Amino acid sequence: MTDITALKPERLLSVREVFGIDSDLMAPAFAERDDHVPEIDAVYRFNPDVTLAILAGFMRDRRVMVQGLHGTGKSTHIEQVAARLNWPCVRLNLDGHISRLDLVGKDAVVLREGQQVTEFQEGIVPWALQRPVALIFDEYDAGRPDVMFVIQRILEQGGKFTLMDQNRVLHPHPSFRLFATANTVGLGNLNGLYHGAQRLNHAQIDRWNIVASLDYLPAEEEIAIVQARVPSTRNEAGHDMVRAMVAVADLTRKGFAAGDLSTLMSPRTVITWAENVEIFRDPALAFRLSFVNKCDEAERPLVAEYFQRCFDLELKESHQLSGS
Protein backbone atom coordinates (compact mmCIF):
# COMPACT_ATOMS: atom_id res chain seq x y z
CA MET A 1 0.00 0.00 0.00
CA THR A 2 1.30 3.46 -0.94
CA ASP A 3 2.53 5.65 1.92
CA ILE A 4 0.12 8.55 1.58
CA THR A 5 2.42 10.97 3.43
CA ALA A 6 5.05 10.49 0.72
CA LEU A 7 2.74 11.50 -2.14
CA LYS A 8 3.13 14.89 -3.80
CA PRO A 9 1.81 16.52 -6.97
CA GLU A 10 4.30 15.70 -9.71
CA ARG A 11 2.61 16.85 -12.89
CA LEU A 12 0.38 19.54 -14.35
CA LEU A 13 -2.89 18.87 -16.18
CA SER A 14 -4.58 21.13 -18.70
CA VAL A 15 -7.89 22.37 -17.29
CA ARG A 16 -9.16 22.73 -20.85
CA GLU A 17 -8.37 19.12 -21.76
CA VAL A 18 -9.39 17.45 -18.51
CA PHE A 19 -12.49 19.46 -17.56
CA GLY A 20 -13.56 20.90 -20.92
CA ILE A 21 -13.40 24.48 -19.62
CA ASP A 22 -12.12 27.35 -21.75
CA SER A 23 -9.13 28.18 -19.56
CA ASP A 24 -5.35 28.10 -19.91
CA LEU A 25 -4.90 27.08 -16.28
CA MET A 26 -2.74 24.08 -15.42
CA ALA A 27 -3.76 22.11 -12.33
CA PRO A 28 -1.33 20.14 -10.13
CA ALA A 29 -1.96 16.40 -10.02
CA PHE A 30 -0.52 13.31 -8.41
CA ALA A 31 1.10 10.64 -10.60
CA GLU A 32 -0.13 7.77 -8.43
CA ARG A 33 -3.60 6.92 -7.20
CA ASP A 34 -4.13 6.20 -3.53
CA ASP A 35 -6.95 4.30 -1.84
CA HIS A 36 -8.37 7.64 -0.72
CA VAL A 37 -8.70 8.99 -4.28
CA PRO A 38 -12.37 8.93 -5.41
CA GLU A 39 -13.35 6.85 -8.41
CA ILE A 40 -13.76 8.79 -11.66
CA ASP A 41 -17.33 9.21 -12.87
CA ALA A 42 -16.82 9.30 -16.64
CA VAL A 43 -20.20 10.94 -17.39
CA TYR A 44 -20.02 13.62 -14.70
CA ARG A 45 -20.95 17.13 -15.89
CA PHE A 46 -18.86 19.96 -14.46
CA ASN A 47 -20.20 23.43 -13.75
CA PRO A 48 -17.43 25.71 -15.15
CA ASP A 49 -17.55 28.43 -12.45
CA VAL A 50 -17.75 25.97 -9.54
CA THR A 51 -15.04 23.78 -11.05
CA LEU A 52 -12.68 26.75 -11.39
CA ALA A 53 -13.40 27.72 -7.78
CA ILE A 54 -12.58 24.19 -6.59
CA LEU A 55 -9.46 24.08 -8.75
CA ALA A 56 -8.33 27.34 -7.14
CA GLY A 57 -8.55 25.50 -3.84
CA PHE A 58 -6.25 22.75 -5.07
CA MET A 59 -3.88 25.03 -6.98
CA ARG A 60 -3.48 27.92 -4.51
CA ASP A 61 -4.54 26.38 -1.21
CA ARG A 62 -7.72 28.47 -1.06
CA ARG A 63 -10.40 27.51 1.47
CA VAL A 64 -13.44 26.81 -0.74
CA MET A 65 -17.08 26.48 0.33
CA VAL A 66 -19.70 25.23 -2.15
CA GLN A 67 -23.25 26.32 -1.34
CA GLY A 68 -26.55 25.11 -2.80
CA LEU A 69 -29.72 23.10 -2.30
CA HIS A 70 -29.29 19.45 -1.43
CA GLY A 71 -29.02 17.13 -4.38
CA THR A 72 -27.14 19.62 -6.56
CA GLY A 73 -23.94 17.56 -6.25
CA LYS A 74 -21.83 19.85 -4.09
CA SER A 75 -19.71 17.13 -2.49
CA THR A 76 -19.45 15.03 -5.63
CA HIS A 77 -18.27 18.09 -7.56
CA ILE A 78 -15.28 18.40 -5.24
CA GLU A 79 -14.71 14.65 -5.31
CA GLN A 80 -14.78 14.45 -9.09
CA VAL A 81 -12.24 17.27 -9.40
CA ALA A 82 -10.05 15.42 -6.88
CA ALA A 83 -10.53 12.15 -8.78
CA ARG A 84 -9.09 13.65 -11.95
CA LEU A 85 -6.15 15.12 -10.06
CA ASN A 86 -5.50 11.82 -8.24
CA TRP A 87 -5.79 13.85 -5.03
CA PRO A 88 -6.64 11.84 -1.88
CA CYS A 89 -9.96 13.00 -0.48
CA VAL A 90 -11.87 12.42 2.77
CA ARG A 91 -15.46 13.51 3.49
CA LEU A 92 -16.84 14.15 6.96
CA ASN A 93 -20.51 14.89 7.54
CA LEU A 94 -20.92 17.40 10.37
CA ASP A 95 -24.15 15.99 11.71
CA GLY A 96 -25.17 16.30 15.33
CA HIS A 97 -23.29 13.12 16.26
CA ILE A 98 -19.84 14.50 15.35
CA SER A 99 -18.11 15.82 18.45
CA ARG A 100 -14.94 17.74 19.22
CA LEU A 101 -13.26 14.47 20.24
CA ASP A 102 -14.06 12.95 16.84
CA LEU A 103 -12.24 15.82 15.18
CA VAL A 104 -9.30 16.25 17.56
CA GLY A 105 -8.80 12.75 18.99
CA LYS A 106 -8.97 11.10 22.40
CA ASP A 107 -7.20 8.69 24.72
CA ALA A 108 -8.08 5.05 24.14
CA VAL A 109 -7.13 1.78 25.82
CA VAL A 110 -5.30 -0.55 23.40
CA LEU A 111 -3.35 -3.79 23.64
CA ARG A 112 0.42 -3.59 23.26
CA GLU A 113 2.35 -6.88 23.63
CA GLY A 114 -0.49 -8.35 25.65
CA GLN A 115 -0.69 -5.33 27.97
CA GLN A 116 -3.44 -2.76 28.16
CA VAL A 117 -2.05 0.71 27.66
CA THR A 118 -3.61 4.12 27.20
CA GLU A 119 -2.55 6.05 24.13
CA PHE A 120 -3.80 9.04 22.18
CA GLN A 121 -5.65 8.28 18.95
CA GLU A 122 -5.71 11.14 16.46
CA GLY A 123 -9.01 12.43 15.17
CA ILE A 124 -9.71 13.15 11.52
CA VAL A 125 -8.40 16.73 11.62
CA PRO A 126 -4.82 16.04 12.80
CA TRP A 127 -4.71 12.90 10.62
CA ALA A 128 -5.68 14.80 7.46
CA LEU A 129 -3.67 17.92 8.33
CA GLN A 130 -0.41 15.97 8.20
CA ARG A 131 -1.14 14.38 4.82
CA PRO A 132 -1.73 15.42 1.19
CA VAL A 133 -5.47 15.12 1.64
CA ALA A 134 -8.46 17.20 0.58
CA LEU A 135 -10.70 17.26 3.67
CA ILE A 136 -14.37 18.02 2.91
CA PHE A 137 -16.72 19.13 5.67
CA ASP A 138 -20.22 18.21 4.48
CA GLU A 139 -23.25 20.04 5.90
CA TYR A 140 -20.89 22.65 7.31
CA ASP A 141 -23.73 24.83 8.61
CA ALA A 142 -25.12 21.92 10.67
CA GLY A 143 -22.02 21.56 12.85
CA ARG A 144 -22.19 21.94 16.61
CA PRO A 145 -20.59 25.08 18.13
CA ASP A 146 -17.77 23.14 19.85
CA VAL A 147 -16.98 21.46 16.53
CA MET A 148 -16.98 24.74 14.62
CA PHE A 149 -14.40 26.30 16.94
CA VAL A 150 -12.07 23.34 16.31
CA ILE A 151 -12.40 23.87 12.56
CA GLN A 152 -11.85 27.61 12.88
CA ARG A 153 -8.31 26.91 14.08
CA ILE A 154 -7.29 25.37 10.75
CA LEU A 155 -9.07 27.79 8.42
CA GLU A 156 -6.16 30.20 8.23
CA GLN A 157 -3.76 29.59 5.36
CA GLY A 158 -0.87 27.61 6.77
CA GLY A 159 -2.74 27.55 10.07
CA LYS A 160 -1.09 25.45 12.75
CA PHE A 161 -3.11 23.09 14.91
CA THR A 162 -2.29 22.57 18.57
CA LEU A 163 -3.08 19.29 20.27
CA MET A 164 -3.52 20.53 23.81
CA ASP A 165 -3.53 17.07 25.39
CA GLN A 166 -0.29 16.19 23.63
CA ASN A 167 1.49 19.55 23.87
CA ARG A 168 2.15 19.21 20.14
CA VAL A 169 1.87 21.79 17.40
CA LEU A 170 0.99 20.32 14.00
CA HIS A 171 1.98 22.06 10.79
CA PRO A 172 -0.18 21.37 7.73
CA HIS A 173 1.23 19.25 4.93
CA PRO A 174 2.02 21.39 1.85
CA SER A 175 -0.67 19.51 -0.09
CA PHE A 176 -3.37 19.56 2.59
CA ARG A 177 -6.56 21.22 1.26
CA LEU A 178 -9.81 22.18 2.96
CA PHE A 179 -13.32 22.34 1.46
CA ALA A 180 -16.87 22.58 2.78
CA THR A 181 -20.42 22.24 1.50
CA ALA A 182 -23.39 24.09 2.95
CA ASN A 183 -27.06 24.74 2.28
CA THR A 184 -27.35 28.22 3.76
CA VAL A 185 -23.88 29.84 3.90
CA GLY A 186 -24.21 30.19 7.65
CA LEU A 187 -27.50 32.11 7.60
CA GLY A 188 -29.39 29.46 9.57
CA ASN A 189 -32.84 28.05 8.87
CA LEU A 190 -34.39 31.35 7.81
CA ASN A 191 -36.88 29.94 5.31
CA GLY A 192 -37.65 26.73 7.20
CA LEU A 193 -36.13 24.48 4.53
CA TYR A 194 -33.15 23.20 6.51
CA HIS A 195 -33.93 22.24 10.08
CA GLY A 196 -30.72 21.89 12.07
CA ALA A 197 -28.80 24.46 10.05
CA GLN A 198 -26.97 26.82 12.41
CA ARG A 199 -26.20 30.50 12.10
CA LEU A 200 -22.44 30.91 11.84
CA ASN A 201 -20.59 33.94 13.11
CA HIS A 202 -18.97 36.28 10.61
CA ALA A 203 -15.47 35.25 11.70
CA GLN A 204 -16.25 31.70 10.56
CA ILE A 205 -17.60 32.64 7.14
CA ASP A 206 -14.94 35.29 6.57
CA ARG A 207 -12.19 32.67 6.78
CA TRP A 208 -13.46 30.91 3.65
CA ASN A 209 -11.59 32.49 0.76
CA ILE A 210 -14.00 31.41 -1.96
CA VAL A 211 -17.74 30.68 -1.79
CA ALA A 212 -19.19 29.10 -4.93
CA SER A 213 -22.90 28.60 -5.57
CA LEU A 214 -24.11 25.45 -7.29
CA ASP A 215 -27.57 25.00 -8.79
CA TYR A 216 -29.18 22.08 -10.58
CA LEU A 217 -28.06 21.30 -14.12
CA PRO A 218 -29.99 22.63 -17.13
CA ALA A 219 -32.69 20.18 -18.21
CA GLU A 220 -30.90 18.97 -21.35
CA GLU A 221 -27.73 18.17 -19.39
CA GLU A 222 -29.66 16.29 -16.73
CA ILE A 223 -31.45 14.33 -19.45
CA ALA A 224 -28.08 13.44 -20.98
CA ILE A 225 -26.77 12.20 -17.62
CA VAL A 226 -29.83 10.01 -17.01
CA GLN A 227 -29.54 8.52 -20.50
CA ALA A 228 -25.82 7.89 -19.96
CA ARG A 229 -26.62 6.01 -16.73
CA VAL A 230 -29.62 4.09 -18.05
CA PRO A 231 -28.82 2.79 -21.56
CA SER A 232 -32.38 1.57 -22.21
CA THR A 233 -33.53 5.22 -22.43
CA ARG A 234 -31.20 6.01 -25.35
CA ASN A 235 -33.91 6.11 -27.98
CA GLU A 236 -36.63 8.55 -28.98
CA ALA A 237 -39.26 7.14 -26.63
CA GLY A 238 -36.73 6.95 -23.79
CA HIS A 239 -35.65 10.52 -24.38
CA ASP A 240 -39.25 11.75 -24.21
CA MET A 241 -39.83 9.80 -21.00
CA VAL A 242 -36.66 11.13 -19.35
CA ARG A 243 -37.56 14.66 -20.41
CA ALA A 244 -40.89 14.29 -18.60
CA MET A 245 -39.13 12.81 -15.55
CA VAL A 246 -36.73 15.74 -15.36
CA ALA A 247 -39.68 18.12 -15.69
CA VAL A 248 -41.34 16.44 -12.69
CA ALA A 249 -38.09 16.74 -10.75
CA ASP A 250 -37.88 20.45 -11.59
CA LEU A 251 -41.40 21.01 -10.26
CA THR A 252 -40.53 19.27 -6.98
CA ARG A 253 -37.48 21.52 -6.63
CA LYS A 254 -39.56 24.63 -7.19
CA GLY A 255 -42.16 23.30 -4.75
CA PHE A 256 -39.45 22.68 -2.17
CA ALA A 257 -38.01 26.18 -2.61
CA ALA A 258 -41.51 27.64 -2.21
CA GLY A 259 -42.12 25.61 0.95
CA ASP A 260 -44.87 23.49 -0.61
CA LEU A 261 -42.87 20.25 -0.32
CA SER A 262 -40.58 18.98 2.41
CA THR A 263 -38.51 16.89 0.01
CA LEU A 264 -37.36 17.13 -3.59
CA MET A 265 -36.05 14.98 -6.41
CA SER A 266 -32.30 15.10 -6.85
CA PRO A 267 -30.66 13.99 -10.12
CA ARG A 268 -29.80 10.76 -8.28
CA THR A 269 -33.50 10.17 -7.62
CA VAL A 270 -34.32 10.72 -11.30
CA ILE A 271 -31.69 8.13 -12.24
CA THR A 272 -33.16 5.70 -9.70
CA TRP A 273 -36.62 6.30 -11.14
CA ALA A 274 -35.37 5.53 -14.67
CA GLU A 275 -33.62 2.38 -13.43
CA ASN A 276 -36.82 1.24 -11.72
CA VAL A 277 -38.78 1.78 -14.95
CA GLU A 278 -36.49 -0.87 -16.45
CA ILE A 279 -37.65 -3.27 -13.73
CA PHE A 280 -41.38 -2.48 -13.52
CA ARG A 281 -42.02 -1.28 -17.10
CA ASP A 282 -44.34 1.34 -15.65
CA PRO A 283 -43.25 4.97 -15.07
CA ALA A 284 -46.11 5.60 -12.64
CA LEU A 285 -45.39 2.57 -10.44
CA ALA A 286 -41.65 3.28 -10.56
CA PHE A 287 -42.34 6.90 -9.58
CA ARG A 288 -44.37 5.86 -6.53
CA LEU A 289 -41.67 3.42 -5.40
CA SER A 290 -38.77 5.78 -6.16
CA PHE A 291 -40.12 9.04 -4.74
CA VAL A 292 -43.80 9.38 -3.83
CA ASN A 293 -43.64 6.98 -0.90
CA LYS A 294 -40.82 9.08 0.59
CA CYS A 295 -43.06 12.15 0.71
CA ASP A 296 -45.29 13.34 3.50
CA GLU A 297 -48.75 11.87 2.95
CA ALA A 298 -50.33 15.34 2.91
CA GLU A 299 -48.01 16.39 0.08
CA ARG A 300 -48.62 13.38 -2.18
CA PRO A 301 -51.62 14.87 -4.04
CA LEU A 302 -49.41 17.79 -5.11
CA VAL A 303 -46.69 15.37 -6.26
CA ALA A 304 -49.35 13.42 -8.19
CA GLU A 305 -50.40 16.69 -9.84
CA TYR A 306 -46.80 17.31 -10.94
CA PHE A 307 -46.71 13.84 -12.48
CA GLN A 308 -50.01 14.37 -14.31
CA ARG A 309 -48.87 17.73 -15.72
CA CYS A 310 -45.66 16.26 -17.15
CA PHE A 311 -46.83 12.80 -18.25
CA ASP A 312 -50.48 13.61 -19.07
CA LEU A 313 -51.27 10.54 -17.00
CA GLU A 314 -52.92 10.18 -13.61
CA LEU A 315 -51.28 8.32 -10.78
CA LYS A 316 -53.37 5.74 -8.96
CA GLU A 317 -55.87 6.70 -6.32
CA SER A 318 -54.74 8.25 -3.04
CA HIS A 319 -55.03 4.99 -1.08
CA GLN A 320 -52.47 3.48 -3.43
CA LEU A 321 -50.30 6.58 -3.17
CA SER A 322 -50.03 6.00 0.55
CA GLY A 323 -48.68 2.53 -0.04
CA SER A 324 -51.68 0.72 1.49
Automatic annotation (TrEMBL):
Its EC number is 6.6.1.2. GO terms for molecular function: cobaltochelatase activity. InterPro entries: ATPase_dyneun-rel_AAA, CbbQ/NirQ/NorQ/GpvN, CobS_N_dom, P-loop_NTPase. The keyword Ligase applies. SUPFAM superfamilies: P-loop containing nucleoside triphosphate hydrolases. It is an enzyme of class 6 (ligase). Residues 64-189 form the ATPase dynein-related AAA domain. Keywords: Ligase. The keyword Ribonucleoprotein does not apply. Residues 7-37 form the Cobaltochelatase subunit CobS N-terminal domain. It comes from the Bacteria. This is Cobaltochelatase CobS. The lineage of its organism: Bacteria, Pseudomonadati, Pseudomonadota, Betaproteobacteria, Burkholderiales.
